[in-house]
Amino acid sequence: MSVPLRPAVERIPAYVPGARAATGQRVHKLSSNENPYGPLPTVQEAVAQAAGTLNRYPDMFASELTEAVAARHGVTPEHVVAGCGSVAVLGHVLQAFCDPGDEVVHAWRSFEAYPIVIRLQGATPVPVPVDADGRHDLPAMLAAVTDRTRAVLLCSPNNPTGPALRHTQVAHTLAALPDDVLVVLDEAYVEFVRDEDPVDSRALLAAHPNLVVLRTFSKAYGLAGLRVGYAVARPDVARGIRTASTPFGVNHLAQVAAVASLQPDAQAELDRRVDAVVAERHRVLTGLRAQGWTVPDSQGNLVWLPTGPATADLAADAAAHGVLVRPFAGEGIRVSIGEPDSNDRVLELAGRWREHHQAG
Ligand SMILES: *Cc1c(COP(=O)(O)O)cnc(C)c1O
């Protein structure tokens, strides 16, 4: 006899991380939607200085970070909860609001962490297929809401397919839902959005007490290795999330790096990097379409190749050519936007695959 796992945990699929390079191997790592550029020099310097005080616990409430984030969003610090990456914050949101048996509606395919964190909470994921363009099917998601629904997760831009939701769509969804259903808007890639009618989460938060906005420093800010993200919500909602949070969950280096990233003098360089990724995204999307691929619009730092049954073979071929991508077996390949030479390699490979495909 061994101690049985909770049945909910037994059923959870393992998170599949993006492939990593073997030590010493030079590869184009496009498998985890990371920022290809290293942390800003000012951020690296702040982290190096902070290393001298690691014998101390971090500020439990990440006060300086929370204040800087609140100022950025035009809210008071009571509205902000920082956590060990926005995935952890999402876990705390569900811990604070979901009981076993509660349902959480989310798009699928979307972020693979969603069904994991929902199940871990004992709640039931209710996946609603994205449409042929990789977009959330919001009418279908609304139709999936029952009196057991406790939360609706919206991922905009959607990982791994790419499209962003529009402001009017999210506003309409919030208006259509009862106030006692939480809406979690995961904006991990918001900085890369260049869409018409982008979601104005500040306006939506002012109008809807049931909205939680999630942001991260892992993507546009290039701090994936430090694990820091946050939620913005009404103070009573934020208080619940804070209660569920891991004490001292945001480590000292992460707090220092995130605060340094929010300094006004860091903004221009961060913007320049994001703009470079956006320009490359445009180049990659245009190049793929010129090759004959049907790819969804992307507003994140990623593109989705619908490779179907050939997915595993093509991902292996990419790896053999030094390009690490994220395959979703039988469905497609998510490729992060990297530096221009990495993206050139992607276009080369995709062009070759396309020719073979058409020849076969
Ligand atoms: C990368 C990503 C996150 C951020 O995760 P962290 O835990 O903050 O690194 C959140 N949501 C989505 C959809 C993502 O792709």
From TrEMBL:
Reactions listed under catalytic activity: an aromatic L-alpha-amino acid + 2-oxoglutarate = an aromatic oxo-acid + L-glutamate
Family annotation (InterPro entries): Aminotrans_II_pyridoxalP_BS, Aminotransferase_I/II_large, ArAT, HisP_aminotrans, HistidinolP_aminotransfase, PyrdxlP-dep_Trfase, PyrdxlP-dep_Trfase_major, PyrdxlP-dep_Trfase_small
Any Pfam family hit: Aminotran_1_2
Domain of life, source organism: Bacteria
Recorded coiled-coil stretches: none
Annotated EC: 2.6.1.57
SUPFAM superfamilies: PLP-dependent transferases (SSF53383)
Assigned keywords, A-Z: Aminotransferase, Pyridoxal phosphate, Transferase
Required cofactor(s): pyridoxal 5'-phosphate
GO biological process assignments: L-histidine biosynthetic process
Annotated Aminotransferase class I/classII large domain residues: 28-348
Gene Ontology MF term list: aromatic-amino-acid transaminase activity; histidinol-phosphate transaminase activity; pyridoxal phosphate binding
Residue positions where N6-(pyridoxal phosphate)lysine is found in the record: 219
Similarity comment: family membership: Belongs to the class-II pyridoxal-phosphate-dependent aminotransferase family.
Assembly and oligomerization: Homodimer.
Main function: Aminotransferase that catalyzes the conversion of aromatic amino acids and 2-oxoglutarate into corresponding aromatic oxo acids and L-glutamate.
Identification of the protein by name: Aromatic amino acid aminotransferase
Species for this entry: Cellulomonas bogoriensis 69B4 = DSM 16987
